[in-house]
Design goal:
Blueprint lengths: L1 H15 L2 H4 L31 H21 L10 E8 L6 E12 L2 E10 L6 E8 L46 H6 L3 E6 H4 L10 H6 L13 H17 L4 E11 L1 H12 L5 E5 L17 H7 L23 H5 L6 E6 L7 H17 L17 E2 L2 E6 L7 H16 L4
Parallel strand pairs: 4-5, 4-6, 6-7, 7-8, 8-10
Antiparallel strand pairs: 1-2, 2-3, 3-5, 9-10
Helix pairs in contact: 7-8
The protein binds alpha-D-glucopyranuronic acid.
Length: 427
């Protein structure tokens, strides 16, 4: 009787918890229960031939893999809009120690869609600085307490702790996520810091793709094809438009821009770097399923579950692989491989088992043959390093102690990795 009552209470507790907190119980967290799987070989083309040199990778296999990710995972995005226009909203002395200038720029994509890019430039004698570009979850005001950061005008996820109701920022969002952004450290090391609220590009809910860039660029009145872009595709497209802006900002060296993202925005950073080769370096922080984690391991979050809970993130075709992930013509190591030979860094957290830390490590490791074919080093370690230790070649990896988050330790490793690759070859 007692046991039955406890069971019922457990069921009720499960129902009142948010989906993300409740789901893991039904999922595999046992390494010995990971199914046997065979990964598609990133160097073997669809016709069975193996690419043997950089030219074969560039002209045959890379375009083929990119196309597979477009068709089966993230969907197809439109070309850069011809109407792209940049408007300087504000420029001034920043409330960020060590930064020389704060610049806020509105990037107009269409008559009714625009992104507000916040840029902090470092104090430097260089003509143009390398930069970090990242999307944020709760508006530009959330990244720092600087009182001059303009509030977001677009949708954001409700968050009672941050005082966000009805999807609008409030005063409480100012600086609310500052702990995730090592802006002082970034500018002190000579990098510009650039960020945009992801809700400016596409609101993050299953809304039938009516708003954001989908509403502006999708053909109206037509049924959505199963390879139409989802929200990750949209956010990645937005990052490329930020790079379009940075290309014409003389204070930033657009050939040395690192794109970084956490969680769903880590998935986005990987896809942005894969499809847009102008990004010089890519950082995935705790990106998990649909990001750096290998789908075929089915450890933690699975393809079936991510499509069920976040159907708008991917293209319609991705859904078919939930029940049979082995039919996917790609796995996520091929997403990392698309970044080669540019540097890519994958980071996990020990308690973030939902994102499958080992599967994230293995994606980077299995991308290595492509890096080596292109004459770059891979990941100088066969097994994940001890917690908090960073291994760095042209691929980098660490698993931080702790939960799903971005911390100072993560940034310390990212900055060292960027120094190694972006500062070694200044223009
Ligand atoms: C959920 C989702 C993950 C995602 C994360 C986030 O946990 O299942 O795939 O990475 O949200 O973006 O916060």
């Amino acid at each position: 009787m007692q046991a039955k009552r406890f069971r019922r209470l457990a069921v009720i507790a499960a129902l009142v918890q948010p989906a993300s907190a409740r789901a893991p119980r039904q999922f595999n967290y046992d390494e010995s229960a990971v199914p046997a799987y065979e990964l598609p070989d990133p160097l073997v083309c669809a016709d069975g031939s193996r690419v043997k040199d950089a030219a074969g990778w560039r002209t045959r296999r890379r375009p083929e893999i990119l196309e597979l990710f477009r068709e089966h995972v993230y969907g197809r995005a439109p070309a850069a809009p011809s109407e792209l226009r940049f408007e300087l909203l504000e420029e001034g002395e920043p409330g960020v120690e060590g930064s020389a200038v704060r610049r806020q720029v509105r990037i107009h994509l269409a008559s009714d869609v625009s992104l507000d890019l916040l840029v902090y430039l470092p104090r430097t004698t260089a003509d143009a600085s390398p930069a970090f570009l990242a999307l944020n979850f709760y508006g530009n005001t959330s990244v720092h307490r600087d009182p001059e950061i303009l509030p977001s005008r677009s949708w954001m996820g409700d968050n009672a702790d941050l005082g966000i109701v009805d999807h609008r920022a409030t005063a409480a969002t100012r600086g609310a996520r500052a702990h995730r952004w090592a802006i002082e450290e970034i500018v002190a090391r000579g990098y510009a810091f650039c960020t945009v609220h992801y809700g400016d590009i596409d609101p993050d809910h299953d809304d039938g793709f009516q708003n954001g860039v989908h509403g502006a660029f999708d053909p109206s009145g037509e049924e959505r094809p199963p390879d139409a872009w989802g929200s990750i595709g949209a956010w990645a497209f937005g990052l490329s438009r930020c790079l379009d802006y940075l290309e014409q900002d003389d204070d930033v060296d657009a050939e040395r821009v690192a794109v970084m993202g956490h969680s769903r925005l880590g998935k986005t950073a990987l896809w942005a770097g894969a499809r847009d080769e102008r990004f010089a370096l890519v950082i995935s922080n705790n990106s998990g399923c649909g990001g750096a984690a290998l789908s075929r391991r089915e450890f933690g979050e699975t393809v079936a579950r991510i499509n069920e809970v976040f159907p708008h993130w991917f293209c319609g075709n991705f859904r078919a692989y939930g029940p049979n992930v082995n039919r996917l013509p790609v796995d996520q190591h091929m997403l990392v491989a698309l970044i080669a030979p540019r540097p890519a860094y994958v980071a996990s957290a020990t308690q973030d088992r939902w994102a499958d830390p080992r599967g994230e490590f293995l994606s980077a490791k299995h991308a290595q043959p492509v890096y080596e074919l292109l004459g770059a080093s891979g990941l100088p370690m066969g097994e994940p390093p001890s917690p908090n230790v960073s291994v760095q070649g042209t691929l980098g990896y660490h698993v931080r102690e702790g939960k799903h988050d971005v911390t100072e330790l993560d940034w310390a490793h990212y900055l060292d990795f960027a120094d190694r690759h972006l500062l070694a070859t200044p223009k």
